[in-house]
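Bit of a strange request maybe. I'm writing a small parser for structure token strings and I need a real example to test against, not something I typed by hand. Could someone generate the tokens for this chain?
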Amino acid sequence: MASSSGKRTSSSGRTRKSTTSRRNRQAQRSAQDSELFHEIGLIVLFVAMLILFCCNFGIIGPVGNAISGVLFGIFGFTAYIAPIVIFLAVAFWFANEGNPTAVRKVIAGAVLFLMIGVVCDLITKTAGSMEQYDIKMLYTNCSTGKKGGGIFAGSICYLLLHYLETVGTVLVVLLCSLISLILVTERSFLNSMRNGGDRIREMSREDAARRRENAEIRRQEQEERTSQREEARRIREEERRIREEERRLRAEEKENEQILNAVPRREKKVTGVMMDTSLKKQDTQPAGRRDDIHEIVYEEDAQEAPEVEETRVTSNDFDKINVTDMHQVTMQEAVGEASYEDIPVEEVSSAATFKKPFERRESWQEEAALLTPQAEAIRIHKEDIPEHEETPAEPAESPVRPKITAPEPPKGNSLAEDQIHKDIAKAAKQPAAEYRIPPLSLLQKGKASTGDSSRELKETAMRLQQTLNTFGVKVTITDISQGPSVTRYELQPEQGVKVSKIVGLADDIKLNLAATDIRIEAPIPGKAAIGIEVPNKENMTVALRDLLESNEFREFNSNIAFAVGKDIAGKTVVADIAKMPHMLIAGATGSGKSVCINTLIMSILYKAHPDDVKLIMVDPKVVELSVYNGIPHLLIPVVTDPKKASAALHWGVSEMEDRYRKFADYNVRDLKGYNKKIEAMPVCEGEERPKKMPQIVIIVDELADLMMVCPGEVEESICRLAQLARAAGIHLIIATQRPSVDVITGLIKANMPSRVAFSVSSGVDSRTILDMNGAEKLLGKGDMLFYPQGYSKPARVQGAFVSDKEVSDVVDYLKNQTLGNVYNSYAEDIEEKIKNIGSSGGSSGSGSGGGNDRDEYFEEAARFIIDKDKASIGMLQRVLKIGFNRAARIMDQLCEYGVVGEEEGTKPRKVLMSMEQFEQLLEEI
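Reply from user aminoacidic:
Good idea to test on real output. This should exercise your parser:
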């Protein structure tokens, strides 16, 4: 029994399970059938809607016209859209079957459709024109005239007009339409009005904030204009003062020239005249003698003669001349005719007796000084007239008769030669003009810009925090640092949040902030925070003048200070090239490398004296650095030839080795110690003090071109300088726009400790420059990652901007200074050495061999081309395993010797020689 009951229980359980599963399958099947029925019904309904819609336009035929008449009779003018409305209502019903909201919306839509028909009937007055309600007439009018609202809307319109007139009908229609719209859209008009009011208030607050910001901007612009006017006024005052000073100096020089160019007096030499010698006029005048020429006679009875007042001798030529310190004046004196045996003197009183003996005078200047002792000084500038020391002659021991004879007349051009020698001596003694740092007024000030407002920054910070909270990352915004081009938001994650999780959300953060790109610094060095750098909506330009006027640059104790730019916090970044000590600058075209190099050069020009810092510039692009030709800091003119550039780097290596030998001789370790020892070293008479060594900065604007022409020599020189030249005071600045491993080789990168990365196209290039990603996310236009020696991570800096006009103005100012010869003999020697190096070693870079101009593969390439009877550069590259440039040069040489013809576009060149002709050519050359 138990077993039978157990069997019944198990069988009943199986029956219930099978029934349930069968019921489920039937429900699923019915649901599928219902969906299939709905889908088929929608398709049929869609086709019917298209047919009804086309019937309204008379393109279905007689049946369509009959159907169209029925539609217009039922719906009136709204028959044009009735098929579409019916299809949409049914489709909405099928999609939301069993949903009471859908039923409500369908009914509200039908009421709204009827109200549209009532409005059409009101406009056409189809029902209103009937004196008595007649549904048949209403149907006929709507069907034939295709107007009105049809029998349904027309009947409602007639009823409303009959009882409420037109105004009441319009109000009822508006009420029903509004209610239907609210039910269909589920939007409340009150909420819309409330939201509109909130938006208006928010817009008012934004307008007020914008007006305050604009007022602040206008105030700053006004202050800027005021400061510019003050600066302009100060500059005008300074220029006016300089012009007045120059005018005064020119007037003084002109007055002095007039004085010095006056008719000179003849040289008079009087000897033997003592204080007891009496000068008196001769009593009788010899025949044939002029009245103004007299013989000087004397008497030796001065002791018995009474003392008379000293007679002051004057001359019309010197009445208006104030003379003192005339030993500084040098002039050529005119000499009279050689026939004069005696030199006439001015007529004096016969009773005049002098109390002291005459001294021997070499020229009329000293006599004039004796005759006019109370005159004022002629202001003679030291730099124009050299000083001369003159020793007066000893007085005569006994009074003798003075025999005054005229000097011999000049022979040939001795006076002109003397003047030339004096001019040469004056130029040699003339001190060199002092170097003047260019004024900052040559540079443009940065324009005041507020950047993003604080409200926008706070809104961005809030969106950033909400975005991270959405992904389950709880953070706290601790600080916001707004820089010229980017703003850094410092986040402090909660305990247990991994840094990698925030870094992995970079794309989601960029999407939610609608930013062009972001950079995550995780973590910030020295802080327990993560930095997310977001580009500003309004960038600010960093002007070089603002950096040069900053205290950081003015107080920076280095001759080769480099005003880099401003960091994310807006602080001025100034670096010392001597501590870098070599720097690599790389980035894509147009990212700001050349402007960065100009900024570096201008920083040195505004900081260093030409005797302390010298520059060697290598510019294979020719147009970037050639503007600096002529400045006193240049050691040699700007190098544009790649082969000569390689020689310049080789000279740098030689100079480094020579300096180290001198350091060893003087027992010092670096350039600073050498210069200090030179200054403190005593100098014996007749010996010259050794010259101080200047710091040398070698700037290469495009390394890629040099590495293509002569890679071996360039890489070797760069590596040797980078390894050893720091203590010798030689520093390398290398820039390239192609940061690939064949340009920035492993050796070069390993020996360049300081690097600057501008915007690049890929993370591979960024890793080539910095050994890490990040440069591919920069914005360009001076946005850089500054990674000098000593930094644990690169710092994001907005580089300074200096225009070409500002550079030209500063260079012109330096050229206009009278600094003598810009390229001294030392620089000429350097240039000659570089030329010699280039002529001796330049052929190796181009791949030529021996002493001729032909490539070492010339003969092999010619034989191969003649054998194959086809010539192309690509074929030479593959066969000889050489680069494109060298293969192209070989092909040009073959064309020059007539082995192949000229190029014909993309076709291979024609082979013009046979093997026998080529052998004959080799014998001839």
